[in-house]
Predict the structure.
Amino acid sequence: MFAYFVRRVLAAIPVMLVVALFVFLLLRLSPGDPAAIIGGDMASPEQLAAIRQNLGLDRPLHVQFFVWLWQLLHGDFSTSLMAHTGVLSMIGQRLEPTLSLALVATALTVLVAVPLGVLAAWRRGSWLDHTVMSVSVLGFSVPVFVIGYGLTTLFALQLHWLPVQGFKSIFDGVGPFAYRIALPALTLASAHIALVARMTRASLLDVLGEDYIRTARAKGLGELAVLFRHALRNAWVPILTVIGSGFALMISGVVVTESVFNIPGLGRLIVDAVLARDYPVIQGMILLTSGVYVLINLLIDMSYAISDPRIRY
Amino acid sequence: MACEQAPLLQVENLRVATAEGRPILHGVSFHIQPGETLCLVGESGSGKSVASLATLGLLPKGALQVEGGTITFAGEALLGASARRLKALRGNRVAMIFQEPMTALNPVLSVGRQIDEVLCCHTRLDAAERRAKTLDALAQVHLPDIQRIYGAYPHRLSGGQRQRIMIAMALVLEPTLLIADEPTTALDVTTQQQILTLIRELQQRHGTAVLFITHDMGVVADIADRVCVMHQGQVVEQGAAAQVLGQPRQAYTRQLLAAVPALAPRAPRAAGSAQVVLDVVELSMVYPGPRRLLRRSPGTCAADQVSFNLTRGRTLGIVGESGSGKSTVARCLMRLLTPSAGAVRVTGKDISELSAAGLKPHRKRIQMIFQDPNRSLNPRRSIAQSLIEGPMNYGIDRAEALTRAQRLLELVGLPADALGRYPHQFSGGQRQRIAIARALAMEPDVIVADEAVSALDVSVQAQVLELLDGLQQRLGVAIVFITHDLRVAAQLCDEVLVMRRGQVVEYGTAAQVLGAPQHTYTQQLMAAVPGKAWDFSAAARS
C-alpha cells in the first residue's frame, strides 16, 4: 500500500508541472507585450521596464519558464495589480471563508444525501423512492441563486432565525460561525445533495443485486447491517468520487453563493481579478485550483485503496 | 431413514409467481427428515433455487412472490412468519450456502469478521468467545493456517477455500437444516469431491439435514439419500436415490439420466487424413508480474513447453482444472495472446510471431467457440449480421455471405428465419448453435472450443456434442476441445492432453489417458468424477 501511495504522489508532480507550463504560456502566448498586459493600461514606462526586468523577458522562453518556476517554488507569486499586495497573501485571506463554506457544505451533503440515497435504493419503486428522486431533480435544476434567495426569504426575512448575509471566522467562536454559515452552506450543498443522493441510490442498487447481499440476509442480519455494513461499503467508491470532485468544484467556483451571502471568498476574488484583467491573481488562482483538484484526486485514489482491499495498482 | 418421524422441513403445494403473475412454481411439495440429504435436481429454469429461497423468505423482493401453499419447519409455519422470526431462524437453525463462492462473500470484509457477524447477531458471546468459536469453525472445515485466514480478505483465497469459509459460516451455529444451492458447480472436480466429503462429514457429526440443489446427476448419485426431480416448476418424481436413479418411473427422469455422458471413452475412430492441421511445438506463455515501486515482480508461467499436434477431422481434448493453463493455450493458438516462446503451426505456417497484418490471412483458418453463449454474441446485432461479418471481412460479397449463413443455420439445426432475429430471442443451446455456425462461416481448418458446453444443461449439452460430432464428420474440421469435464472429453475426443499448472502431464489417445491413466494426477482427476460408479445409461434404459 505504501509503495502505491508513493507512486501516486510522484505521479502528481508531472501533472502540476504541465499546469504550471500552461499558466506560464497563458501570458507569454497572448498577443502583445506581457509586460504591458501585466502592467495594465495605466502603467508608466518605468513600471513596464521594471516588470520586464523582473520577468526576464529578454531571455529565451525556456529560461524564463524555469526562472518563473523558481520564483513560484520560493512562494513568489508576484504582485496583484489592483491591490498592489502579494498574490499569495491575497489568496490566503480569501481562502478561509471559501474553505469553511466548502467543508460545511460537503459535510451537509454526506450527512443528508447518503442516507437519502440508501433509503431510496432500499425502498426502490416506493413513494419514498419517488419523492427522494423528484426532489433531487428539483435540487439541481433550480439555479443556486434562486435557492439562496428563497432560503434567505424564508429563514432570515420571515422567520428571523438566521442572518441575511455575512461571514464570521470559526476562530471567533463556533456559535457565530455556524449561525452565519448555515444558509450559504445549505444553498451551496443543495445541488450536490441531489447529485450524491442519486449516485448513492444507483451505486447501491447495483450492489444490492450481488450474491454477498443474499449471503448477508441468509445469515439473519438485520436490514441496517445489510445496507450499511455490506452494501454501502461496496458501493462507496463511485459515491466518494462524486463527493470529492464536488468539493473541488466548491473551492474553485462558489461565486454565486458568495455573492448572494456577501462572503469575501475566492469566488469573488477570481471574478474581480478577471474583470480587472489582474493576470498575476488569475495565474495564482489557476495554480491553486488545479493544485486542489490534484490533491483531492490523490486523496480519493488513496481512500479507494483503503476502503477496498482488492485495489492494488 | 425412519419415515414415521416428523419431517424437519415440509413444503406443501408451494406456488410462486413473478410480480406480473407468471407462475414459476406450480404447487411443489417435498419434505426432509432430520439428518437426511434430499437432492433437488433439475435443469436451469426448473424452479429448484426458487423453492429453496422461498423457504427462508429470501425471494428477491418485488420480482417473485409466494402465491400459496405451506412451508413448515420443525412444526412452525414459515410462510406468514414475521420478518423478525425469519431473521432469527436464518443462519441459526437454517443456513444456506450458494453456488458462486467467488461472489457470495463480501469482498471488503475479512472472512473472520463475516463469520463473526453470524455469532454477533444470534448469540450473546463476548468477543474472545466469538473469536474462539470462529477459529474452531475454520478448523472444522480443514482450512490451513486458520489464524491468517481469519484476517484474510476473500480475494486472497481460492474458490475451494471460499466455499469452505461459506460452509464454516453456515455451520458455525450447528443448524438443523443446511440448504446448499449448487455449492460445487463452480468448483474443480477434485475440489468438488473435497467439499462434498466435508459436507458429508459435518452432516454426520452434527446430524444436519441437507437440502442439496444440483443439476449434476453424478453428484446426486454420490450424496443423495432421496431425490426430488423438478421440471418447469413441478416435481416430476421423488423417491429414494437408488430407486430414482436405478428405476426411474417418469420419462423426463430417464431422459435426464440418458443425457449424462458416460465416463468410458468412445470407441476409437480410424484415423482419416494424415494431414497435420495444427502443430504446436514447445509453446510457453509467461504473464508479466505486477509492477512494484521500481521493478517488475517475476511473472506467472501459465503454459510451459506445451507440444501436441492434430490431424484433419480429429478432436483433441485439453483437460485440466482451473488455473492449469488450458485457456491460455487456447488464446495462444488463436493468437489472442502472443506466446513467449514456441511455435504454433496452422496448416504448416507458424503464426506465433506474425504481426497483426501478417496474421490476417491466417485468422480464418482457426476459429473459436466460447463458453458462455449469452455473452459471446453481440446482443445488438442480428444473427445475420453476426454470421456474415467474418466472411465479408475476407472479401465475400454480402449476398453470397447471406446465402452461406442460411445454409449454416440449417446445418446447425436452426430455422432459416433465425437470420433476422437477435440473440436474446434464443435459448442458451440455440445460441451456442449460432456461435458454432459463426465459427464455421469462416470455413476454418481448426476450431478451438473453450468449455463450449459447460454452461449448458445436460440434455442441451448432449445435443450440442452430437451436433459437433456430426459437423466434424461432414466437414472434416479438426477440433481442440477444452474442458474440465472428463465425461464430456470421453465422449467427444480422439486424443486427450491433461494439463496441470501449465505443464502437460499426460498426452495420448482417449482410450489410453482416460481408460488407463498412467500419471497420478490423471488418476486423481478420474477418481474425483462424481457418480463414477454409477451407470446412468443402464438406468435410463430400464
User: Anything to note?
Assistant: Chain B has a mean pLDDT of 88.
